Amino acid sequence: MTENSTVFGLRHQARCLAPVTSSTEKSQFLAGTVGVKDNAIYLLEYDDEDMTIMPTMYNHPEEIWDIVSCPTDENLLFTSHSPATLWRKPAVEAREDSNQHHDLTRLVTLENEGIKNKQIISIDSNKIYLSSLNDSSSAQTSLTIDVSCTFTTNADSPSLRQLQNAVWNPHKLELVTVGDCSLSGWDLRSGKNSFNRSEAHKSTIRAVDYNTNKPYHVATGGDDAKVHIWDVRQLKEPILNVNDNSHSHWIWSVAFNSLQDQLLLTSSSDTLVNLHNVVSVSAASYLDSSSEDEDGQSDEYGRSTGKPTDGLICTYDQHEDSVYKVAWSPADTWTFASISYAGRVVISQVPTNEKFKILGV
């Protein structure tokens, strides 16, 4: 699907993408490159009226393996390289020369990455570190958790026995991690394991996201090309297996829409971005037995053309390499971005007919 999408090419290969979470008026995303030299952070501002992307580039000393924006100050961002650094962007007019590079101001250097308000979570292969920013130039580690007890001891396991990803629980002080074949929760007050599912996937789990509208609901994606949604209170089986055949290779990213949580994005090494409807396990209140049209009409994916139902909404195929990250815009519920290893960023929108179905118009 190519309609309602805009493509922007970075100058180098890339693996990381993040929304500017404090920008609620304009859709803005941060992307970082992994070139041999001359790496840069791109601030990409999207204009949904004329569907254009305006870039601003910032010099970065090393390859950027992850990036995250401060939720309260859009001029602050963390990058994970070697090690990790908190930076401040200079005041730059968005419509200056797009080829001009700007310098960042280094504020704090850490061993890893991650930020939420003044608390910072960083991870390595088997540990979680909780730190606090004391001022603009220092950070103090207050808690270290060893998570290796959740990894398999089977030497023949097809999974990588190390942490792959983590996400904050937006409902309480807890971190949810994926690594090896395990999905785990960690209480950040006591440092204890709050839940664990040791064989959540058949091989390495690389992607995780938490539904901000639905406590206890977590999505995971793995090297088995599967996407599951879990209720962490009852982990015997997933509460939903998301379109089992929609991807054919490793899942790199999953992302719930923070407002319309029946919308779930997934991306994979198969070069595809898929938009799913998972309304049956969402906070939406309009799923009932009358959700089918009386005339039984359906769209090209076999889904009802009336009220939303579970299923694949559409596939976005503008990438030609592994799609490492998908992210929703905090400024526009219906806008999202994706990035592939070739350095291609695609900003897309939810199809209009699906938007109208969700809004009931």
From TrEMBL:
Alphabetically ordered keywords of this record: Repeat, WD repeat
Family: Belongs to the WD repeat EIPR1 family.
EIPR1-like beta-propeller domain segment(s): 3-275
Pfam families, A to Z: Beta-prop_EIPR1, WD40
Species in which this protein is naturally found: Thamnidium elegans
Name of the protein this chain belongs to: EIPR1-like beta-propeller domain-containing protein
Lineage of producing organism: Eukaryota, Fungi, Fungi incertae sedis, Mucoromycota, Mucoromycotina
The organism's place on the tree of life at top rank: Eukaryota
WD repeat copies, ranges: 198-233
GO biological process per UniProt: protein ubiquitination
